[in-house]
Amino acid sequence: MAKAAVRWIEVGTLAIGAPLRVAVHEVQGAGDGPTLGVSALLHGDEVTGPEIIRRVLEAVDPSRLRGRLLLVPVANPLAFQALTRNTPLAVEIANLNRTFPGDPVLDLPARLARALEGGFLDHVTHLVDLHAGGTFPVVDYTISLRDLDLALAFGQQVVREVRGYAGTMGALAAQQGKASVVAELGGGYARDAHYVALGVRGVLNVMRHLGMLDGQPERPARQTVVTELATLRPGHGGLLYSEVGLDRMSAEVSGGTLLGRVVSPHTFDVLEELRAPFTRGVLLLLRAGMTPVNPGDYAYMLGNLDGARTVVNA
Ligand SMILES: [Zn+2]
C-alpha cells in the first residue's frame, strides 16, 4: 500500500474542457496527534515548495508518525502552468493569496480559494504554507501569524511576527484559531538545493515540535524576531543592478547602504537608487546580479533590528 493517499479537490471545468483540480496527499500516522497541513505554490512561480513536500513525503514513515499530514504541492495549478505569481483567467483579484476567504460563485481565484478551504484548510489543526521569492527575488524568513514557538521551531534565522495579513490563507487559518506559519524560502532559481533542504528540515522540525515525530527541532543557535519590515519596490521599471549578492542574505546592513540601482536599458540613465531604510536592518529578500523590474515589484525586504528580539537556543 502506498504510504500516502492522493485525493483531488475538484474546482470546476475550464473552457478548454480540462478539469481544474488540486491534489492533496494524506498520510495517516499509526498514533494519535494533530493534523498538520503543508501547502505550496499558492503563487505559481515559487517552485521550491512542491520539491520540499515530495521530500517530506519520502522522509516520513507512517508507522512512526503521530497524527496526520495533509500535503498540497500545487495549490494554484493555473499560475503554475503560466509560471506567474498571480492567477491567469482571473476576473477580479489575481493574487490567490489575497483572495481568502474564497467564494464559490465569483471568479476562478475566489472559487479556488474556497475549494482549498473546504478540501484542505478546514481539516487541518496547524498550517505551514510554503512560499518563495518567485522568478527573480530570493527570500529567507518565516512569518508567524499565530504561535511564535511553532514559527521558531521551523528553524529559519529570522522570524517576522505579524498580526493579520488580510486575504492570505495563513491569516485565515490564524483567524480560525489554528497555529499558522508561512515559510518564505528560496526563489530566483538560485541555491535551490540549499533552500529545499532548509524547507524539508523546517517541516520535520515543526512535526517534532508538535510531537508528531520523535526528536527535537534542529535550530540555529540564535534566531531573531522582528516586527517591523520594509519592502523596497522601485518606482521605475528597467534593469535592477544589485549591489548585494546572496552571501548577504540574513546579514545586517546599516541605514543608507546602497542595495541596487534601477537603470534604463534604453538610455542607460540611472533612474533610481534603492537604499537600506533602517539604522540597523537585516536583509530578508534580495535580488542578485541584474534583473528586470517593473514599478512596484519586490526588489528588497529588510527587517528592523531596532526593537527586534534575539532568541538563544540551548
Ligand atoms: Zn508567495
Could you give a short description of this structure?
With 314 residues, the chain is of the alpha+beta class.
Molecular structure report:
With 314 residues, this protein is an alpha+beta fold. It has helices spanning 48-59, 77-82, 108-119, 148-154, 169-175, 192-209, and strands at 5-13, 19-28, 31-40, 66-72, 126-131, 138-146, 158-161, 179-186, 222-226, 229-232, 238-242, 252-254, 258-263, 270-275, 280-286, 290-293, 300-304, 309-312. The chain folds into two domains: 5-220, 3-Layer(aba) Sandwich (Aminopeptidase), CATH 3.40.630.10; 228-312, RNA polymerase II/Efflux pump adaptor protein, barrel-sandwich hybrid domain (OB fold (Dihydrolipoamide Acetyltransferase, E2P), Beta Barrel). It has six helices and 18 strands. Strands 1, 2, 3, 4, 5, 6, 7, 8, 9, 10, 12, 15, 17 and 18 form a 14-stranded mixed β-sheet that branches. Helix 4 packs across helix 6. The chain is globular, with a radius of gyration of 20 Å. The structure holds zinc ion. The site of zinc ion has 5 residues, from loops.
What topology emerges from the helices and strands here?
Blueprint: E1 5-13, E2 19-28, E3 31-40, H1 48-59, E4 66-72, H2 77-82, H3 108-119, E5 126-131, E6 138-146, H4 148-154, E7 158-161, H5 169-175, E8 179-186, H6 192-209, E9 222-226, E10 229-232, E11 238-242, E12 252-254, E13 258-263, E14 270-275, E15 280-286, E16 290-293, E17 300-304, E18 309-312
Parallel strand pairs: 3-4, 3-5, 5-8, 6-7, 7-9
Antiparallel strand pairs: 1-2, 2-4, 6-8, 6-15, 9-18, 10-17, 11-13, 11-16, 12-15, 13-14, 15-17
Helix pairs in contact: 1-6, 4-6
Bound molecules: zinc ion.
Zinc ion is lined by residues 42-43, 46, 97, 131.
